[in-house]
UniProtKB/TrEMBL annotation, chain A:
Family per record: Belongs to the CPA3 antiporters (TC 2.A.63) subunit B family.
Name recorded for this polypeptide: Na(+)/H(+) antiporter subunit B
Keyword Glycoprotein: no
Keyword Membrane appears in the UniProt entry: yes
Cellular component per GO, a single term: plasma membrane
Predominant location: membrane
Transmembrane annotation, as ranges: 6-28, 35-55, 70-90, 111-136
Taxonomy of the source species: Bacteria, Bacillati, Bacillota, Bacilli, Bacillales
Subcellular location: Cell membrane
UniProt KW keywords: Cell membrane, Membrane, Transmembrane, Transmembrane helix
Species of the source: Kurthia sibirica
Name of a matching Pfam family: MnhB
Na+/H+ antiporter MnhB subunit-related protein domain location: 7-131
Topology in the lipid bilayer: Multi-pass membrane protein
From TrEMBL, chain B:
The protein, known as: Na+/H+ antiporter subunit A
Membrane topology according to the record: Multi-pass membrane protein
NCBIfam families for the chain: 2a6301s01, PRK12645.1
Ranges for domain NADH:quinone oxidoreductase/Mrp antiporter transmembrane: 127-422
Amino acid sequence: MKINDLILRTVVQFVVFIVLTIAIYLFFAGHYTPGGGFVAGLVLASAVVMLYISFDTDTVRKGLPLDFKIVAAIGVTLALLSGILPMLFGQPFLKMSSMNIQFPLIGEKTLATVMIFELGVALTVVGVVMTIILSISEGSDD
Amino acid sequence: MITKWAIILPFIVAFIIPMIRSKLKKTHIGWIALIVPIVLFIALLRFIPQVAAGKVYEHTWQWIPSLDLSFTTYLDGLSMLFALLITGMGALVILYSIFYLSQKEALHKFYCYLLIFMTAMLGVVFSDHFIMLYFFWELTSVSSFLLIAFWHHRKASRRGAQKSMLITVSGGVAMLIGFLMIAHMTGSYSIREAIQIMPTELTNTLFIPAMVLVLLGAFTKSAQFPFHIWLPDAMEAPTPVSAYLHSATMVKAGIYLVARLTPLFAINQSWFWTVTIVGLMTMFWGSFNAVKQTDLKALLAFSTISQLGIIMSLLGMGSLVYVFGYSPATVIYTQAGFAALFHLLNHATFKGALFMMVGIVDHEVGSRDIRRLGGLMSIMPFTFTIAMIGSLSMAGIPFFNGFLSKEMFFEAALRIQQADLYSSTAMLSIIPVIVWVGSVFTFIYCTILIVKTFFGSKDKLPRDRKIHEAPKGMLISPFILVTLVVIMFFVPNFFARYLFSPAMLSLYPNTGTMEQLTPHIAAWHGFNTPLLMTIAVVIIGVILFKLLPKWRGIYNTLPERFTLNVLYDRGQNEVENVGRFMTNLYMTGSIRHYIIYIYLFFIVVVGGYFIKSDSFAFDMTKNAPIEWYEISLMAVMIIAAILILRAKSRLTAVVLNGVLGFGVSIFFVLFRAPDLALTQLVVESVTTVLFLLCFTYLPEWKKEDTPKYTKLINMAIALSAGVLVVILSFAVLHYDEFKTISGFFENAYELAGGANIVNTILGDFRAFDTMLEVVVLLTAGIGVYTLIKLKPRKERKKNEDQ
């Protein structure tokens, strides 16, 4: 089945960036307002799915040369690491901490280790969702 | 601390070895593995003076203090003896294997498994915690499995590996239950604490079951009768493995456990009887069967079984000191325990050398069947010397260490005869007889080993290759071992002072001082009964060996189908058949059936619980009023759900399902749960794509032709599952069996630094849950990937059996 829909492609080219922005917004907003790693990961995944639907597999793979299995593995490792790291400082497993830092231009922001954990969750979600969708769509032929 | 390092170091190197394999093309990777046991052996040697003075080293890592789980290791006389055995033999065997295994083999795997085994074995002898001991115990079984199946293209290797695994692991599980019983009785998981507390629990009804279960573990591991059948099959492993695991170390784990727990159980007389009788039966049966073997390794396997029986029965005899209670008159019984430790080390030296000798013969001649061997003495003089010293020591001939421990064994058996155990004198008096008969058979198989391999004509040797003496490197390890065999004969008391005496303190704590527990070993002890017994063994043994063809027939008197091996095979087949039958009953391959099982379970267990506890109470009076837009949304969803049932194409069904999902997310918005609504929306979109993808694989949409009866039952199950969920969600509001946890989250901002309470729960309060969910997600993803991408390749299956 070959899809060659010009309108879809043109729209997707713009929309993908909007969706990606939303994903990043959701990721950082999660600490104070609705959002978080899981949703951000899902939104990211849906952006990639959109690309795959409107363009053919080879094109997307050229522009986005990622092995999503590895992305998922990195995600889980990050989540685990964020749990183990505090143990090195004598804290309990998965103890989260945060600090306020003065950034140039954007002012004072809170940096929390929970962000590492959330990043891990997000990457796992993207990785797993894409792995499942891609392996089902490609089948066992190759 | 040395104990922790000793356990961890081999494990670390085991991980490194497969990684650096590609970097080292030229060097044999065994040299790197060799460093580990040598370093550990030297490090342990440095502790000998302190341990010999009675000092005990202890080290604890707290793991989960609230569950009484800690990783406590300690180094005392007994664990020192075993640790030196493990590291020392480990070093010699690895050195030997470097010359035995060629570079073409999967060496990185071999040394990885071997070092994991070393970790496991050191863990067994150093652990003070019952559960840790169990963990390492099973790890030895697993590594042994991997090593036996090292040449896994051979069917016999795989079968031997499976057999040893099944028998030792079943024993291990029994042992675990025994450990749990001990912990229940004494209230402690620490072995040493349990030993202190146990005397107050003698009348406990769990005492005997715990003892039996723990002994099951020890007997299966140490190949005691009738569980010995796995050891001959395990000889399919490469010879260095047989020398290391299946004669020197792993099979002695059971001995270690019995020795370690003697102070715990021996107060009850049944311990003495079980251990002694099983040991003696094993000793007799092993030596009796060794005589009929034609494969040199099988012969050594049965001889190992027999020798393990000797050590086991000596430990049993030594435990009498607990039955009688300690007094200067009874301390003499501990000498049997001393002989056990002494023979343990002796056996490791001569049997290790013999295994390596057989390996050399196999390597150079290409056969280890005594019907095809003969006259090797002139071709392989060094190998012959090794075989000679090893066999004579095993047969208990003077000038070799086996003689000393064999004499002590006779002496202990004779002393037991005079023990005053009420009405059982008849039983006790046959003990020396069994011991003597077993020794005669031992002498015969030792003679067979030497005569059939090294004497006689060379005609039977395979002619297709030029046979010569083994390379020097292969001879180093067995030479060190046979030198030890001789040295230990001449200075036994030196070894006794530094190795066995401290170990005696662990075997018999609170019974006497180190001096009282250590007998003086003398090679010449006058013309007493033990010496006369040895002389008789030699004379009768030589006569019987000469007459062997005449009485060989007795081995055929027992019909084939009554042997333990056949029994084991039949049992295994039966279990497999029943298992397959049971699985086929419910594993139909139809997803609909599986969903029915899940729903039925849910209805019966969850619904049953709520009915039983009468928790279906709910009242609507406190609920908020229902608005008209909620009702209309609900109506849309209900219509969509009903239409799914009547849908004519899959696409319609998916779209209608989507309506349901989006309806739910609108409800989330209405009830002010933006996080949930957001997630639900995105999940809905992604799953729709997934659904559409899956459809390309499905057959065409056909009208169902299931019988009406089945349909009705399915509908009933579906309806009751749905109704149950609805009722539950009402009932949960008023269910107050558990305390509410929302109080923990109220000051989320101070505790977790986040204003979004949903996320602080996910990422901080319950982060452990989230982390495990992420792991589950990854596992599911990998599962889907492997299911679709990695189909079994048919052509690979064919050449699995060679």
